[in-house]
C-alpha cells in the first residue's frame, strides 16, 4: 500500500512518499484476533459506525459459542452483534454471525440489532450468500487491513457492505406494530408529540399519516412510505431523524436554536435531534422549515412558500 504523507517544515508544505506494508494477521504470533478485539474494545470508533460503547464482550450464547462483541448506540437504541475473523470470510463464519444476531434480537426486542462481520478478506461468496436473504437481515461487512510502517502497526477498517437505512425497502422487512405498542414502550404523551409533528408536515404537504414500525415511527403518503422524517418516542423525549445531506446551512440553523442536536449519521444521511416538550412550541418554525427541506430533498417536489434558511 502506497500513501502520500503531507509534512510541514518551516511553514512550507512538503510531500513525502511512504510505502506501507499490509500484513496478514491470520497466522501472526503476536497480533492475533484477541489483540484486534482488544483494540476495538478500547476504541469502538475505529469501525466507523459512530459513537458506540462496548456493551459486552465474549457473550455466551444459549445455542453455544460466544459473540465477540456487543456494541451499543445509546442515542438510537441500536446494538451491533460483532463477529471478528482473521483471514477470509467462510460459510461457518457467516452462519455464526447471522445466528448470533438472531439470538440477540429475540432476547431483547427493545433494541434494533444489526449483524456486523469483520474479516481481512470479504469474499465474493459472502456477497452471494447474503444476496439470498434479499435484504431481510440487517448486516454490515467490514474489511480490516493491518498496515505496518517501520516498527509500528495500525488497523484500517473499511465498510464494504452497509445496512439498509429506514426507507421504503426497510419498511418491507420491519415488523409492523401499532400505536398501543409505542404508548407502552414510551408514553402516551410522547407518542402524541408525533401527532403534533405530523401536523407540521400537513402545513405544506397533504395525505401524510404515521406508520408504526417496530424500531421507529415513519410516514406514509397515500399509503406509500416516505420517511423524510421519522420519530422514536422515549419516556420523556422524542428522537427526531431528518433525512438530509449534511451542510453548513443546516448545521448553522440548528446550532442557532435550543434544539438538542446529538448526532449526524453519515451512513444513513440523518440529522438526529432529541426533542423536549417545550421544543414543539418554541422551535416550531424551525422544525417546519427543516421538514420542508427534508421533504424537498427526498421527493424532489417544490414548495412555493419555502423560506430561505437564513430567514428562519
Summarize the structure.
The chain is built from nine helices and 16 strands.
What features would you describe in this structure?
The chain has 312 residues and is α+β, with helices and mostly antiparallel strands. It folds into 2 domains: 2-161, Trna Endonuclease, Chain: A, domain 1 (3-Layer(aba) Sandwich); 168-311, Aspartate Aminotransferase, domain 1 (Alpha-Beta Complex). 29% of the residues lie in helices and 36% in strands. It is built from 9 helices and 16 strands. The chain has helices at residues 33-42, 91-107, 124-131, 168-173, 179-185, 188-202, 248-255, 279-282, 284-299, and strands at 2-9, 12-19, 21-23, 53-60, 66-73, 78-88, 112-121, 139-149, 152-161, 208-212, 217-221, 224-225, 229-233, 238-243, 260-265, 270-275. Strands 3, 4, 5, 6, 7, 8 and 9 form a 7-stranded mixed β-sheet that branches. A 4-stranded antiparallel β-sheet has the order 13-14-16-15, with helices on one face. It has a 3-stranded antiparallel β-sheet with strand order 10-11-12, with helices on one face. α5 (179-185) crosses α6. The chain is globular, with a radius of gyration of 22 Å. The N and C termini lie far apart (49 Å). 29% of the residues are buried. Residues 1-10 and 305-312 have low confidence and may be disordered.
Amino acid at each position: 500500500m502506497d500513501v502520500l504523507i503531507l509534512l510541514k517544515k518551516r511553514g512550507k508544505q512538503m510531500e513525502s512518499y511512504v510505502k506501507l506494508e499490509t500484513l496478514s494477521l491470520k497466522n501472526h504470533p503476536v497480533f492475533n484476533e484477541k489483540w484486534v478485539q482488544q483494540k476495538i474494545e478500547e476504541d469502538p470508533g475505529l469501525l466507523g459506525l459512530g459513537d458506540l460503547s462496548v456493551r459486552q464482550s465474549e457473550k455466551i450464547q444459549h445455542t453455544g459459542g460466544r459473540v465477540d462483541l456487543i456494541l451499543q448506540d445509546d442515542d438510537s437504541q441500536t446494538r451491533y452483534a460483532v463477529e471478528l475473523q482473521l483471514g477470509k470470510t467462510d460459510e461457518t463464519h457467516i452462519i455464526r454471525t447471522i445466528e448470533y444476531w438472531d439470538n440477540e434480537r429475540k432476547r431483547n426486542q427493545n433494541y434494533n440489532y444489526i449483524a456486523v462481520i469483520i474479516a481481512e478478506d470479504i469474499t465474493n461468496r459472502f456477497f452471494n450468500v447474503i444476496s439470498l436473504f434479499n435484504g431481510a437481515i440487517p448486516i454490515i461487512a467490514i474489511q480490516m487491513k493491518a498496515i505496518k510502517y517501520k516498527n509500528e502497526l495500525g488497523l484500517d477498517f473499511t465498510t464494504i457492505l452497509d445496512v439498509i437505512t429506514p426507507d421504503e425497502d426497510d419498511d418491507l422487512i420491519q415488523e409492523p406494530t401499532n400505536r398501543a405498542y409505542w404508548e407502552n414502550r414510551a408514553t402516551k404523551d410522547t407518542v402524541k408529540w408525533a401527532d403534533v409533528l405530523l401536523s407540521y408536515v400537513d402545513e405544506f404537504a397533504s395525505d401524510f399519516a404515521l406508520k408504526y414500525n417496530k424500531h421507529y415511527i415513519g410516514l406514509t403518503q397515500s399509503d406509500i412510505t416516505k420517511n423524510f422524517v421519522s420519530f422514536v418516542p422515549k419516556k420523556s423525549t422524542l428522537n427526531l431523524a431528518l433525512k438530509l445531506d449534511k451542510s453548513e446551512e443546516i448545521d448553522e440553523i440548528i446550532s442557532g436554536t435550543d434544539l438538542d442536536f446529538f448526532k449526524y449519521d453519515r451512513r444513513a444521511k440523518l440529522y438526529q435531534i432529541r426533542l423536549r416538550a417545550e421544543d414543539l412550541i418554541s422551535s416550531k418554525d424551525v422544525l417546519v422549515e427543516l421538514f420542508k427541506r427534508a421533504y424537498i430533498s427526498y421527493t424532489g417536489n417544490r414548495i412555493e412558500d419555502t423560506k430561505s434558511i437564513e430567514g428562519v
